[in-house]
Design the sequence.
């Protein structure tokens, strides 16, 4: 029987981690995501499932603990907010370079620097363009509701193990702190050693068996030709991800002359903006990317055959708009609208920005 609760987004991340059989969480407190670890500590999952929950001495320590757990084929995760995620970048690129699965949650706050504890979406570049050094990508999921905070934990782990790649849930202070009704996932037991061997036995450090070679987990390769070959291997993996894992949602786009593109909490605001604009007689729709990497480039390009223009709405100085422009490829105008520094835009401000786009096109 479905179980519903009224919960905060951050709390749901913690509950979903326990319910999907997570083996370990390693983190460090920072607003506005501290409730994730606080909820785990209050729930005491080590008594229920044996899940390890540990407050590390720093963000750097936490991400390297994730590296160790992932190397053993375990479901492990961490969470933080913008400055903390920046500190984790070296460890994240090591994990990507070692082709290890893990889940990372970023509840974004305003920046740069220490910035503000209010919500923002200014970590887009960091999330989808790599963030750390080297040629690598994370799979990036952008929840727009507390329900998706629940759903994307299990989805994130599934994708991480499917592609042996880190997955990032890119949330923000709005989604993390707001309360909504949520249907919690069914409780699944943690994998047994036998199941880990079956799922991850071709690469994980589960102990040397007499009938197989050693498994070495590393991102280090001193031979440049072998490193180049590995880089090409990653490129091919990312091509498969782009082909198979693009997720998006459209709202009233069938007859739309203009399309808003927004993710996360901004997409909720834009949905109301669509309603306001249509009440004024403007045919406008909304495309919400659910995966920011891979980005719905193909879908946006296809929409150019009908749409007269696109407006990228994001709580930043303009980051996702670059990917929208690349997708549109100059076919129609693309503009950006955003509020900065933790200021959350309003539907009426979006409609006003849309009016300006329409005027430019006439």
Sequence:
């Amino acid at each position: 029987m479905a179980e519903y609760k009224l919960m905060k987004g951050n709390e749901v991340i913690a509950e979903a981690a326990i319910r999907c059989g997570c083996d370990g969480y390693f983190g460090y407190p920072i607003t506005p995501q501290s409730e994730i670890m606080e909820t785990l500590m209050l729930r005491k999952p080590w008594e229920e499932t044996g899940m390890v929950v540990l407050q590390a001495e720093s963000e750097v320590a936490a991400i390297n603990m994730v590296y160790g757990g992932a190397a053993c084929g375990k479901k492990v995760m961490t969470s933080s907010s913008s400055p903390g995620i920046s500190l984790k970048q070296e460890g994240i690129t090591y994990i990507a370079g070692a082709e290890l699965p893990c889940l990372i949650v970023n509840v974004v706050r305003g920046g740069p620097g220490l910035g503000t504890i209010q919500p923002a979406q200014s970590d887009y570049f960091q999330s989808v363009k790599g963030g750390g050094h080297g040629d690598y990508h994370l799979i990036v999921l952008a929840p727009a509701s507390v329900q998706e905070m629940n759903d994307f934990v299990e989805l994130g782990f599934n994708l991480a193990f499917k592609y042996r790649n880190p997955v990032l849930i890119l949330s923000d202070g709005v989604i993390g702190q707001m309360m909504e009704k949520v249907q919690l996932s069914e409780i699944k037991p943690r994998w047994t050693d036998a199941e880990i061997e079956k799922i991850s036995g071709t690469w994980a450090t589960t102990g040397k068996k007499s009938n197989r070679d050693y498994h070495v987990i590393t991102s280090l390769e001193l031979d440049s030709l072998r490193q180049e070959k590995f880089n090409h291997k990653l490129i091919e993996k990312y091509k498969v991800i782009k082909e198979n894992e693009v997720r998006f949602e459209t709202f009233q786009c069938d007859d739309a002359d203009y399309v808003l593109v927004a993710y996360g909490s901004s997409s909720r605001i834009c949905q109301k903006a669509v309603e306001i604009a249509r009440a004024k007689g403007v045919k406008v729709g909304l495309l919400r990317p659910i995966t920011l990497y891979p980005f719905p480039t193909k879908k946006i390009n296809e929409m150019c055959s009908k749409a007269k223009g696109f407006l990228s709405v994001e709580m930043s100085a303009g980051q996702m708009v670059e990917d929208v422009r690349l997708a549109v490829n100059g076919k129609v105008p693309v503009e950006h609208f955003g509020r900065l520094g933790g200021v959350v835009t309003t539907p009426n401000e979006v409609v006003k920005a849309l009016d300006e786009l329409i005027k430019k096109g006439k």
